[in-house]
Amino acid sequence: MGLISERVSSLAVSATLAMSQKSAELKASGVDVINMSVGEPDFDTPDFIKEAAKKAIDENYSRYTAVGGYLSLRQAICEKLRKENGMEYTPDQIVVGNGAKQELANAILATINPGDEVIIPVPAWVSYVEMVKLAGGVPVTVEAGLEQNFKINGKQLEAAITPKSKMIMLNSPSNPTGSIYTEPELRGLAEVLERHPEILILSDEIYEHINFLAPGERIHSLYDFEALRERLMVVNGVSKAYAMTGWRIGYIAAPTVLAKAITKLQGQYTSGASSIAQKAAEAAYLGPQDCVREMRDAFERRRDLIVMLASEIPGWKCNVPQGAFYLFPDVSWYIGKKNGDRVIESSADYVMYLLEEAHVATVDGGAFCAPGYLRLSYATSDDNIREAMRRIKEASAKLK
Ligand code: PMP
Ligand code: GLU
Questions:
Q1: Is the separation of the CB atoms in 149 and 397 below 8 Å?
Q2: Which atom of ligand 1 lies at the shortest distance from residue 250's CA?
Q3: Residues with Cβ within 8 Å of residue 112, at least 6 apart in sequence
Q4: Is the peptide bond before 123 cis (omega within 30 degrees of 0)?
Q5: CA 227, CA 197: separation in Å to the nearest integer?
Q6: Which atom of ligand 2 is nearest to the CA of 206?
Q7: CA distances from 2 to 8, 28, 130, 244 (A)
Q8: Is the dihedral of CA 152, 158, 160, 161 positive or negative?
């Protein structure tokens, strides 16, 4: 009998976290690595949020909270959803957990039976497929490459639906592509989903605030389509908007029956999220929002910089990301090229080559179900972006 369960043996390691770890190890051994692998804001958490956490410690917010989170935090989240997104939820429909990641996993575990199919447009964030498999579900990927700006359409969705379809996962703005579904594009998907009332919708909106839409344009969600709301779950959190990745606070907003099931699961697994981090998140939602805008502006400037520098690298084909903080170039041009004895046989090889030759850490597109691409996180300083792209260009030029 094996020591490790089949469930975990067959689980892939999170490539984003693994690559970041590898780059940290190289750095510790003295190599000057620029880490563009993991995606997290490089900013510090704003001071007013940190002050709220210190106050929470002093005021003894030190016991277990309600499993789904402090009522005051869930109220603040409902207020945020109403004001910023036009979404109507009550606190009993909100479950706060250890990051958006936990709430995504909870939602899948709470609804997917072995054999159920989950439709995942790809490229998709590394954890979606693995979370579905952990629940015994069957990921059904639907491909959308650069030529369709990485967005699937209603026809593709319709073709992926079978009698076993139980859920679709949608992520806009997207990690890893930065693409954002427009209202007409969502309408195309909504029309199909309206014909299939048995399919649940898990909408990951964690990058909502990091968008580079024109002033006056707003982010759209499948929530806009009323007929879908009773089977829609919206996931969000403070990690990206408030530079709070390490605080581990995210939430899901869902119809009551689903929120209850998720809370029951969470009650057995984690008892909920850290009390101090919850008070910090509450301050984030209730406090001044200028910090969100300032960080967004910095990401937009860096997006422009990296897109410009990427256009100078021979063979790279890129979109102009509309949100999040990733560039996802098609690098398949390098497959088959050589530097001495070293042959690049895949985008994964190219990623390793860039790490070893240019000392720049990126993530292979294969981890996002899109071999042939790679992902760069530009949530780093302008200087790092310039130097990383200079090194990548130099190392790539040696591949003939
Ligand atoms: N969804 C997507 C698409 C992400 O990129 C991330 C970032 N890791 C998460 C969810 C999870 O975020 P967190 O758990 O930090 O809230
Ligand atoms: N969202 C980030 C990324 O994709 C964080 C790492 C992770 O949780 O996968 O790099």
A1: no
A2: 16
A3: 118, 132, 135, 136, 137, 166, 167
A4: yes
A5: 9
A6: 1
A7: 11, 34, 21, 38
A8: positive
For ligand 1, the distance from its centroid to the CA atom of residue 324, given in whole angstroms, is 11
Question: Hey, what are 269's tokens?
Answer: 């697994």
What residue's CA is closest to ligand 2, atom 9? 16
Burial of 183 (0-12, 13-18, 19+ CB in 10 A): middle
Q: Ligand nearest 236 Cα, by number? A: 1
Which of 98, 206, 233, 325 maximizes ligand 1 atoms within 8 Å of its Cβ, making it the mutation to test the pocket? 206
Q: pTM here?
A: 0.97
- Residue whose Cα lies nearest atom 2 of ligand 2: it is 39
Instruction: Quote the ligand 1 centre to 205 CA distance (angstroms).
Output: 9
Q: In this structure, are residues 161 and 192 in contact, taking their beta carbons and an 8 Å threshold? A: yes
Please say whether the beta carbons of 322 and 213 come within 8 A. yes
Cα angle 19-22-26, degrees, rounded to a multiple of 5: 140
Q: Nearest C-alpha to atom 5 of ligand 1 is from which residue?
A: 175
d(CA 345, ligand 1 centre) in Å: 30
pLDDT digit string (tens) for the chain, length 400 residues:
689 999 999 999 888 888 888 899 999 999 999 999 989 999 999 999 999 999 999 999 999 999 999 999 999 999 999 999 999 999 999 999 999 999 999 999 999 999 999 999 999 999 999 999 999 999 999 999 999 999 999 999 999 999 999 999 999 999 999 999 999 999 999 999 999 999 999 999 999 999 999 988 999 999 999 999 999 999 999 999 999 999 999 999 999 999 999 999 999 999 999 999 999 999 999 999 999 999 999 999 999 999 999 999 999 999 999 999 999 999 999 999 999 999 999 999 999 999 999 999 999 999 999 999 999 999 999 999 999 999 999 999 999 9
Buried b (16+ CB within 10 A) or exposed e, 355-369: bebbbbbbbbbbbbb
Ligand 2 pocket by Cβ (under 6 Å): 14, 16-17, 38-40, 101, 125-126, 175
Best residue among 175, 236, 326 to mutate for probing ligand 2, ranked by most atoms within 8 Å of CB:
175
